[in-house]
Specification:
Blueprint: E1 6-9, H1 19-33, H2 42-48, H3 54-65, H4 75-95, H5 105-114, E2 118-123, H6 127-138, E3 148-151, H7 163-171, E4 179-183, H8 186-195, E5 199-202, E6 217-219, E7 231-233, H9 244-250
Parallel strand pairs: 1-2, 1-4, 2-3, 4-5, 5-6
Antiparallel strand pairs: 6-7
Helix pairs in contact: 1-4, 3-4, 4-6
Bound molecules: xylulose-1,5-bisphosphate and magnesium ion (MG).
């Protein structure tokens, strides 16, 4: 067992609860703008989240509901354009302050920085979504708190493939057991498990019933002094908050 060197943060569902009222709303605005009567309800979007990556999710939706469209000339370009507009609307929501960080995230990032831990992001989402979330919640300097922002199409295969985590380990010259990953979903822990990275799970409305086999522990949130987390799986020794010290003890 090595000493903890780095904390690798997932974004969507972990740093912020971005999917139901953020990405989903942005997708629907892009569809409406394009004159498409596709409306991703909260429940349908929960099913579509099985596929990570916005462009891949649109393609998956078409394969289920409009498979003939996938044979159309230029469909890849249409999907890419829809996704660009969706990202435009998502960034609007972020900049309007509509998507706050989850409880305890700012506190934990600050503690990890003070403890001298290296911070990185490993996410499926579009890079600009990450930098804009950080800027809109923690201020422009916060981007530099992360040694690496590994995001989106930078790797050939998205979660549950391990690519984004293997990319981060390689770029940061780290071994898996020198890290801990903070994730929210089954796709996320499938990616980290294949990369051999110890993983703590924090769930949300979309992921709370998913399978987190292999997680160090599963909590409902990172916790605040006046609002301790609930441990849903595993054992955290009576702690009430995910802290830098607790992360060091877990690895
Ligand atoms: C979650 C995802 C992303 C977002 C949408 O990423 O799967 O695709 O749902 O963002 P993670 P994009 O949990 O790894 O942060 O449309 O930019 O892909
Ligand atoms: Mg996630």
């Amino acid at each position: 067992m090595s000493a903890l060197e780095a904390v690798l943060f997932d974004v969507d569902g972990t740093l912020a609860d971005t999917e139901r009222d953020g990405h989903r709303v942005a997708f629907n605005r892009a569809f409406s703008e394009a004159g498409l009567d596709w409306d991703w309800s909260v429940s349908l979007y929960g099913e579509l989240l099985a596929v990570t990556g916005g462009k891949e999710r649109i393609r998956h939706y078409l394969s289920r509901f409009f498979p003939e469209m996938l044979d159309e000339e230029g469909i890849d370009g249409r999907i890419a354009q829809l996704h660009r507009r969706k990202t435009h609307y998502y960034l609007e929501l972020l900049r309007a302050g509509e998507i706050p960080l989850r409880p305890g995230v700012e506190r934990l990032i600050s503690e990890c920085r003070q403890a001298g831990l290296r911070l990185a992001i490993a996410t499926t989402t579009t890079p600009e979504n990450v930098t804009t979330l950080l800027e809109s919640t923690l201020g422009p300097d916060s981007i530099d708190w992360f040694e690496l922002i590994a995001a989106g199409d930078i790797v050939p295969a998205k979660k549950p493939a391990p690519d984004i985590y293997l990319y981060a380990l390689e770029k940061m010259s780290l071994m898996p057991d020198q890290c801990i990953a903070l994730e929210d979903s089954h796709n996320g822990i499938r990616a980290t498990s294949q990369a051999g990275i110890p993983t703590l799970i924090t769930v949300n409305g979309y992921t709370e019933k998913e399978d987190f086999t292999g997680a160090l522990a599963v909590v409902d949130q990172f916790g605040m002094p006046d609002e301790p987390f609930s441990v849903l799986e595993g054992e955290l020794g009576g702690a009430g908050m995910i802290s830098a010290d607790l992360l060091k003890q877990l690895v």
